[in-house]
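Work through this protein:
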Amino acid sequence: MPASKWLRVLALVSPIALSACQSFADLASDPSLSPSKSPIIAENVRSGRLARLGALQHPRILETYGGEYSNVALERMVAGIVGKLVTVSDNPSQVYQISILDSPVVNAFALPGGYLYVSRGLLALASDSAELAAVIAHEMAHVTSNHGILRQEREKEAVLAERIVSDVLRDKEAGRRALVRGKLDLAQFSRNQELEADAVGISAIGEAGYDPYAAAAFQQRMAAFNAYRSASGANDKGIDFLSTHPSTPQRVALAVGHARKFGGRGTGARDRESYMRGLNGMMFGDNADEGYVRAQRYSHVKLGITFEFPEGFDIENRPEAVLGGRSADGAAIRFDGDEVAKTTSLTEYIASGWVEGLDVSSVRAASINGLEAATAKASVGRWDFDVTVVRANGAVYRILTAAPAGSPELSVLAGKVRSSFRLLSASEKADLKPLRIRILKAEAGDSVATMAAKMRDVTSAQTLFRVLNGVSEGQALEPGTLYKVVTQ
């Protein structure tokens, strides 16, 4: 059976508790990063059916998302926000466990029993504590309102949770794909429930002393980021918070209306500087376990391999595969891996039945940059395929290139990708590092262009800088203000 993209060669990140013993110099000097006075740990409330159901699914969700992202400054900052929100909650006895997911996907969701999840991708998008508080309060509202239970026509909690486990998580790989695509039933809600959670969440952040207009601001930021992502080719609408919590003019207007109940704009704290300091050094984008996309090149340090997509292909690094697509003609490239016995030749493997429409006569042994390989052709309906498998460092990788039937470009495209596949050198491995958020203070004369010029290995740097920092087109930067850039 096919394994995941990484063949289970790599161990999953071990879950790390929010009390991880990591030290940062600024913790002692920044009181905003002190632990909450009411620790947000689910171990305190393991009694109760909902808590037990959430506890059952919690480790599976961590595994799906690569574990928790361990950063003590962020963990304490998030826990402090939750602590403030709990004090004004309609259900102050509810205890929450917040997990920061090690995922670049912009996502946040809730499970029964007080399990709340926010990804580092969402943390990178928020610009201050008030915006993050708005997201967390929204998810807390789903929990306190029992939205996960009320949907599915008020099915019993146990029946609903058991169905989630059996239908979504029974098969590890199917469960992983479904979770990443936001299809976990308990984490999705109806439109009316979303609007209700907006109202409850905005009320909560206002009562907790945060700027209630932050909710509308973050919704607009989500819309801007979605536009940036779509323009960059990552336009899969079904994988994250952006699709399950769409930002619409009506929703923004309703959020502003709820915020007005607390007064005019400028009401409440935003806590921007403390939040930005907490983000400094946080990983941005892909992590080492999923490999890195840099321009048209994909590289994986731990697996020791790299290859390039042809120019004009948009690339998406998904958990199950690395995908490339070209909108002009629909040509596509898929890269993943499979578990193949060392005693099985690659020609035998190609002909073993996993390739639909295979032309058996086209199977050929090959060598690619000194690596054992095999190639073949296949046709299904309106599409022709070039199939390449390569054995490298004991693992087998698959490159499937598709083009419209009869296209003369299929062989050219497949040849470019195939010939670029090789092992990474020691120096290349040393140079490949994850991207990180760096917080810089704008100096006199700085502009979007000068700050974006400091960013590395991102698409449309100036647009991304504006989105990450909430800077509109034509807006000048303020000297002395902190801004995010993405670099190593």
